[in-house]
Design brief:
The N terminus is likely disordered. The strands form 2 sheets. This protein has a 4-stranded mixed β-sheet with strand order 2-1-4-5, with no helix packed on it. Strands 3-7-6 form a 3-stranded mixed β-sheet, with no helix packed on it. 15% of the residues lie in helices and 29% in strands. By secondary structure, the protein is α/β, with parallel strands linked by helices. It has a single domain, classed as Immunoglobulin-like, CATH 2.60.40. It has 2 helices and 7 strands. The protein is globular, with a radius of gyration of 20 Å. Strand 1 and strand 2 form a beta hairpin.
Length: 149
């Protein structure tokens, strides 16, 4: 065994432990703290029964939401449906300055046809959302919440 091997082996072991993350959390603890769309208080939104489906793609055209721009009213349900790839939906506060009541980021959708539902509880206005790992590749969207009719 060479001197390099004797020195390198402990360094590799330390690097592997350091890169493995926080081992103190169990999978159930991590899952319990994952935000969901249900954090919007149901009592503050009257459901309209309207469902708007937004599909999430990774294909030869790129990474994108379809449609990427759409209109809804308070109480409408937006159903984000994974078609291909691995994506999430995130209404970043930085992209929506002054906005209140933004939904938490969704979990990553990984299985085709997996969905994340959001009952719109936002005030009228324009809101921007993105897929976190693909935002710089153009996977962004714009939601317009219209006044009540």
């Amino acid at each position: 065994m060479s001197i390099r091997t004797l020195i390198a082996a402990p360094l590799v072991a330390v690097a592997l432990v350091a890169c493995s993350g926080d081992e103190s959390k169990t999978p159930s603890q991590t899952a319990a703290t994952t935000p969901t769309a249900s954090s919007t208080p149901a009592a503050t939104v009257n459901p309209t029964g309207k469902v708007v489906v937004v599909e999430l793609y990774s294909d030869d055209k790129g990474n994108y939401f379809k449609p990427s721009k759409f209109e809804v009213h308070r109480g409408d349900l937006i159903r984000f449906t994974l078609k291909s790839g691995v994506h999430n939906v995130h209404f970043l506060p930085d992209s929506n300055p002054g906005a209140r009541g933004l939904p938490p980021a969704s979990e990553f959708l990984q299985i085709p046809e997996q969905t994340w539902d959001y009952v719109v509880g936002l005030a009228p206005g324009h809101y921007y959302f993105q897929c976190d790992p693909h935002a710089l590749l153009g996977m962004v969207g714009r939601l317009e919440v219209e006044d009540e009719k």
